[in-house]
Design a protein that fits this description.
The protein has 81 residues and is mainly α. Helix content is 70%, strand content 0%. It has one domain. The longest helix is centred in the middle third of the chain and has 30 residues. The termini are far apart.
């Protein structure tokens, strides 16, 4: 059950990042979507969506690997005294 919940948590940011890529691609081909008044705003929103989704997925994987001890020693948590 825990793996299924983790998969569901990762699907939502992946869809958001995919939507961001779609917005940036539409801007390159000069296709303006409805809620955006200009191509520049559409590209900026797509870039923000892409970065938000990618950073969430990256942070999730980094946190999981840190918990399991699978990352380089320089990224390990420091012992608090």
């Amino acid at each position: 059950m825990g793996r299924f919940i983790a998969l569901m948590i990762l699907i939502i940011p992946a869809v958001i990042a995919g939507y961001g890529i779609k917005l940036m691609r539409d801007t390159i081909f000069q296709l303006l979507n409805t809620p955006y008044p200009s191509l520049l705003i559409q590209f900026t929103a797509g870039f923000i969506f892409f970065l938000a989704g990618l950073s969430f997925i990256g942070g999730f994987i980094f946190y999981r690997d840190r918990k399991n001890g699978k990352i380089a020693p320089r990224f390990q948590k420091r012992n608090q005294k």
